[in-house]
Amino acid sequence: MRAMWKGSVSFGLVSIPIQLYAATENKNVSLRQVHEADGGRIQYKRFCTIDGAEVPYAEIAKGYELPDGEMVVITDTEMADLPLPTQRTIDVLEFVPLESIDPIQYDRTYYLEPQKNAVKPYIVLRDALHKSSQVAIAKVAVRQRESMAVLRVHADVLVMTTMLWPDEVREPDFPFLRDDPPQIRPQELTMAGSLIDSLAEPVFEAEKYHDHYREALEEMIEAKVAGEETTKPAAVTAKADVVDLMAALQASVDAAKKSRGAKSSSEESDEDGEPPAKKKPAARKRAPKSA
After folding, report:
1. CA 179, CA 130: separation in Å to the nearest integer?
2. DSSP state for residue 101 in the 8-state scheme
3. Alpha carbons 40 and 173: distance in angstroms, whole number
4. Which end of the chain is more exposed for a tag (fewer CB within 10 A), N or C?
5. Nearest-angstrom CA–CA distance, 277 and 246
């Protein structure tokens, strides 16, 4: 695991330097989108809907769209200047019983590792929290947003689970909740209770359950590899990319001229004796990009 965040746990007047690690990982089999005919990878490019130019990451900002379609552009510098007191601090606010928190509010879970000079206060907080049979409610800023969080002990490690804000949990509003409930016979309720009792276990053991879909997908991939049912996509050269780009630009130029009722580029070449490449508007589009 790699530390994804460094900060401290603020517990009263005590500050405990820690490192944050993602406690979970996605085990889904990673599949790419490819062309079925030859196995070539499907690529997506970031382009501006106004000038049609491809936009590098360095020129991408954030935007908030107003109801009338106007856009408020917010730069990374402006985002960094926003006041955020919990940016590098897990600020403990109170302690509550774990069962008082509805799991629907849970978001992501992280492990907290003490830095070398903070092992003792870390263990003091861990053991005191475990002994109290309660969990700590805190505020923290992770991934450019401030969240509520729960601190608890798991496998002798402090674990932090970020929570959704109350207004981020949707209220269930379904028609059947407003209708008169159907009549339930006592025998039906008793039968449902008997079914629950027959499937009841004293504790939850996650290890006895398996992702059968993932296992079947992995077996299918292994069988295809063993049977040499693989496709090696042909190498795409830089020259081919340039040819395709030029063809697309030329097609765009011709389409634009046709929509204005002008002659096609080939016809202009016959009349003027000049190749259309010299008269392409594509060269003018590159000027704003370098500005």
Report:
1. 45
2. S
3. 46
4. C
5. 10
Of 113, 125, 132, 89, which Cα lies nearest the Cα of 20?
A: 113
Q: Name the residue among 147, 144, 168, 167 with its Cα closest to residue 62.
A: 144
| pLDDT given for residue 241 in this prediction | 43
Instruction: Count Cβ atoms within 10 A of the Cβ of residue 2 and give its class: 0-12 exposed, 13-18 middle, 19 or more buried.
Output: exposed
User: Is residue 197, in this structure, part of any structural domain at all?
Assistant: no
Q: How far is CA 258 from CA 19, 49, 201, 255, 281, in A?
A: 61, 21, 73, 5, 14
Residue 226 domain-assigned (yes or no): no
Structural domain of 10: 3-25+85-168
pTM score: 0.67
pLDDT reported for residue 230: 75
Which runs of E-coded beta strand occur in 47-168?
A: 62-65, 71-74, 89-96, 106-114, 135-142, 145-154, 157-163
- Domain assignment present for 212: no
Can you give the CATH number for the domain in which 142 is found?
A: 2.40.290.10
Residue 6, strand partner residues: 19
CB distance 19 to 112 below 8 Å: yes
Q: What is the mean pLDDT of each run of 10 residues along the chain (291 residues)?
A: 89 89 88 86 88 89 90 86 76 94 95 94 94 94 86 96 95 94 92 92 91 87 83 60 54 66 49 46 42 37
pLDDT of residue 141: 85
Total domains present in the chain = 1
CA distance 61 to 55: 11
Q: What is the pLDDT of residue 248?
A: 59
